[in-house]
What we know:
Helix content: 25-40%
Shape: elongated
Oligomer: single chain
Amino acid sequence: MADKTDYWASVDVDSLADEVRERFDSYVEEMNRTGRLSLWRKSIRQYYGQDGTGGYANSSTVNFGGEQGELALVNVNHYRSLINATMSMVTSQRPAFKAMALSDDHEAARQITLAENIWDYELDEGDIEAACYRAAELSQVLGEGWVYCGWDPNAGKVEFMQPGSISEDGEEGDIIENSRPIYEGDILVDAYGPEDVARDTRMSNVREASWLIVRRKANKWDLVALFPDLKTEILAAESVVQPFMDIYQQRNGYAPDQDLVYILEMFHKPTPAVPFGRHAIVAGDALLTEGPLPYDEIPVYDIAPSIEMGYAMGYSAWWDLLGLSEAYNSVMSNLVTVSDAGGVPNWLADRRQQVDVRDLEGRLQLVEYTGDGASPPPGLLEGPRVDRNQLELAKIIQDVQQTLSGVSGTMRGTP
């Protein structure tokens, strides 16, 4: 571990894995301490209409609560509807990118056509457009989204097999390591939320950060095949089903035999403290790769509705609707409860009256009773009715949600 006189990103390779993991853990602890992890979970659950445990067992139907099941509980997901309306307006038309040449000769003109064709291909086939959409959606729900656009040397087709090494005496057939496939490589594009991208939050702007640590998922058996000497450390890496780290759905149990594990990929810009930048990939206690930054810039790009002042974290105005969404669900639950309770008629009769019900033709019933001369005849008991004030309150909350979101009812198909 680096002491206070050493910069953590410039330590030797023996200590780098610990430093990367410590920085990411500190970031997660800060998000938990400031309440952002809870906020992200709440926003995700509201967006997908999940129940309080992050599942769907009790969210897609009318449930009943209270001491005796007397309350009807419903979830009306205006939150997702409003966000989807905004996403549709923003992403309905693909941006028209145009390549520009530095010179006006014939070869440059050919390169313009080639560049535009490659870009269109990558948008359609390379998952770039889909990743940008997912990052934009994450930015609305979680305050920021990130597009990772790097290079995966172990993707694509196998180009050739690298021969295994032999012993130092050069005896033929004395193979120490099996041959390994060498792949052609491919662009790696994916979208990540703020819980997966650690940074120095004390910066005034996200893009001023000197370093980023991206938490990605990988199959541990693929990692073992690529780094057989680190098999023990890789298999001991943290599983992706850790409930504290997962904001999308809370699990009831922990399954350590999952194939997917977390890897941490660190990017550091070239700075006076790290002249050539630095890049490293860590899985558990294992340092898988390390070296200078192999890109012109950090290949992770943020999308955020806005940035908090003096804090390198994104902010979403949709979070202002979370409380209103809960209030709207409460009002609608009250309305459904009243309707359910008053939907079945009940009869009211004095205990002293002898009431007899006889069936007639056509499913009619004759009700006879012996009166006492003082009590009114038996009749229907007036049940609870929906209060107009409750209806007005539901409309007010819905209108306030639309006002704060900037999405009018006309945009959502409501005249």
